[in-house]
Specification:
Bound molecules: tryptophan
Helix content: over 70%
Radius of gyration: 21 Å
Structural class: mainly alpha
CATH class: Mainly Alpha
Number of strands: 2
Order of helices and strands: HHHHHHHHHHHHHHHEEHHH
Distance between the termini: 48 Å
């Protein structure tokens, strides 16, 4: 018998997958690099015309075919099962380095209680590897315990906690001197950048990453559904994810501006810049702990969903039990993640002048993720009967999604993804 989520558990687990490093760490610095408020307009547009259709498609495929990404695609057409395997590959590839960063956030949240942390000193110890391994063990344990008793129960506790931590930090940030400067930068749209196509593509790529679309995660989660209102659940997931991303901006920008730092400092913002700032703040240690705990919770619930993609595939395709399946995924991720875990250490693992972790993020996060979303969407939409898909989406929903969604998914969205892939390559 296949396990089933409860209604709320499904929504919380999906929100948990969506909210992660992408919201709290990536979103604010991308807004910073793209001139503030105009990017918000592009992002809101992207989640509506791009994120929502993809999300209801993935959930519906999962619910209808009740199988892992490989199994579901195989049931649509035997030929596209290879796309399913590719999706598992990309998903686990992302997990391998995502989990290294998750380990950093765990270390930072523990160390922040006691001391000042310096990124270079930290990465030259053995802690990054130890923490990578510990987080890997934590998610393995949760996934192995199962959908309802494991993932659902953990998300039931962690997601409300995450919301509370966000509110705490927003209040702290907004009461800092000069907070208003940060808000002004954040919310004032630089209208001229709206005519810049690369900003729009960036917004779409960010929506793809932040909503965990395109690698079969939502197909996997959907496969454990019994009966749910797919459009409504998707809207709740999208709104929650976007709310946290927007609130993260209300944390980062007031902090950054109140200490006179350039908001476009890029990826090192969270691990290098912010700890320096926290050390000047009243109760800095406390708020720094809260901040990294928030990152850790967000990242952990996302990592769980990535691991579930590999696990469900082994269960459905190879008839393994959950215990064996998680053990195999653990082994794969440990080996695949080790070079990333070592890459900022004394070993300084570099490839083409980039650290291994940055190379993985570029290869998997920037290139293979949109490629995977492109082939998965095209593959599914090519072979599925539009009526079948629409029926599944609308089965339990009062408000019916119109047939217009089919050409959007079949032509418009793949075209956008293709442009993103080409842009990344040149
Ligand atoms: N959505 C998560 C975040 O914002 C990251 C994530 C989870 C993800 N699963 C994914 C990104 C699958 C791409 C593909 O951090």
């Amino acid at each position: 018998m296949r396990e089933h989520w409860s209604k709320l558990g499904f929504i919380l687990a999906s929100i948990g997958s969506a909210i992660g490093l992408g919201n709290i760490w990536r979103f604010p610095y991308i807004v910073g690099e793209n001139g503030g408020g105009a990017f918000l307009i592009a992002y809101f547009t992207a989640i509506i015309i791009f994120g929502f259709p993809l999300m209801i498609m993935e959930f519906a495929i999962g619910e209808k075919f009740k199988g892992s990404v490989v199994t579901s695609l195989k049931k649509i057409h035997p030929k596209i099962k290879y796309i399913g395997y590719f999706a598992v590959f990309v998903c686990l590839g992302i997990l391998s380095y995502y989990l290294v960063i998750t380990g950093w956030t765990l270390a930072y949240s523990v160390f922040s209680i006691f001391t000042q942390i310096d990124f270079t000193v930290f990465t030259n110890t053995l802690y990054p590897i130890a923490m990578f391994f510990i987080t890997l063990l934590i998610i393995t344990f949760i996934v192995r315990t199962g959908i309802k008793k494991g993932i659902e129960r953990v998300c039931d506790v962690l997601l409300p906690t995450l919301f509370i931590l966000v509110i705490l930090l927003v209040v702290k940030a907004l009461t800092l001197p000069n907070a208003i400067e940060g808000i002004r930068f954040y919310l004032t749209p630089n209208i001229s950048s709206l005519s810049n196509p690369s900003m729009w593509l960036m917004a779409i790529a960010q929506a793809l990453f932040s909503l965990s679309l395109g690698t079969g995660i939502l197909i996997t989660y959907g496969s454990y559904l019994k009966k749910t209102n797919i459009p409504k659940s998707s809207i709740i997931v999208i709104i929650s994810d976007t709310l946290i991303a927007v609130l993260a901006g209300f944390i980062i920008f007031p902090i950054v501006f109140s200490f006179g730092i350039n908001p476009a400092t890029g990826p090192q913002l969270a691990f290098i810049t912010l700890p320096k700032i926290f050390s000047f703040m009243a109760f800095g240690n406390f708020f720094q702990t809260i901040f990294f705990l928030l990152l850790f919770i967000g990242a952990l619930t996302s990592a769980i969903s990535m691991m579930e993609v590999g696990t469900t595939t082994l269960i459905d395709e190879f008839r393994l039990n959950r215990k064996k399946a998680t053990l195999i995924v653990l082994g794969i991720i440990f080996i695949a993640g080790l070079p990333s875990a070592l890459s900022y250490s004394g070993f300084s693992f570099t490839v083409f002048g980039k650290t291994f972790l940055d190379m993985m993020d570029h290869l998997f996060g920037d290139i293979l993720l949109p490629v995977c979303a492109l082939v998965i969407t095209t593959g599914i939409m090519w072979f599925i009967k539009p009526k079948e898909l629409l029926n599944e989406i609308n089965k339990n929903s009062k408000i019916k999604i119109p047939g217009f969604i089919v050409p959007v998914l079949k032509y418009f969205i793949p075209a956008l993804l293709l442009i993103i892939v080409l842009m990344e390559l040149v």
